[in-house]
Design goal:
Mean pLDDT: 95
Number of strands: 15
Structural class: mainly beta
Shape: globular
Strand content: over 45%
Order of helices and strands: EEEEEEEEEEEEEEE
Largest sheet: 8 strands, antiparallel
Number of helices: 0
CATH architecture: Sandwich
């Protein structure tokens, strides 16, 4: 199956297709072709500096959202996370993240254990179906984390975000090589 690139961003700057949810301009930066965001305390519904982009029409065929995520400081706060969140009707409904849980790092959904290294996240969306995959920097192939269903389309957005950061420490995360591709029929 061949793919057609719908959008890619190497984060030299941010184009007009992105918009911030609860932006704190002094807590994000573009550095060496990467987007870096400070991990703030908070939850999915209070996340600071979530960067959103309209998602393609998921009823027009399968597409794939990919990004590489890294922690610039080792996570220490329970549920500290970085990754992709799916918004429907302006609410977060699904996440594919690298998350610290009880002292270990996992890919959620699926609670797949990983080491704290750069991880390539891949979210495939086809109609109501999603498939979450990941590939640690040290691996050669993607592994399946989980599969499931999304609610009916309702102003869908893809978000790059992080949250549950520590209050007493300044932690930053990094996003690189974002892309959305349409799979050929």
């Amino acid at each position: 199956m061949s793919e057609h690139v719908l959008y890619s961003d190497s984060f030299e700057d941010l184009d007009g297709g992105w918009h911030w949810l609860r932006e704190r301009a002094d807590h994000w930066r573009i550095v060496d072709n990467g987007l870096e965001i400070r991990v703030e305390p908070g939850l999915a519904d209070t996340v600071v500096n979530a960067l959103l982009r309209s998602a393609p029409d998921r009823n027009s065929g399968a597409y794939i959202v990919e990004v590489t995520v890294s922690n610039l400081q080792a996570p220490i706060q329970q549920y500290e996370q970085i990754g992709i969140t799916w918004y429907s009707g302006e609410k977060p409904v699904f996440k594919l993240v690298k998350e610290l849980i009880d002292g270990d790092v996992y890919i959620i959904p699926g609670k797949c254990p990983v080491s704290d290294e750069p991880i390539r996240l891949r979210l495939t969306v086809d109609g109501h179906q999603w498939k979450a995959e990941y590939k640690p920097e040290s691996a050669d192939t993607f592994a399946l984390a989980a599969e499931g269903e999304l609610p009916a389309p309702d102003g869908d957005h893809v978000s790059l975000q992080c949250y549950n950061g520590p209050e007493e420490a300044e932690h930053w995360v990094r996003f690189e090589e974002f892309s959305i591709t349409r799979a050929a029929p």
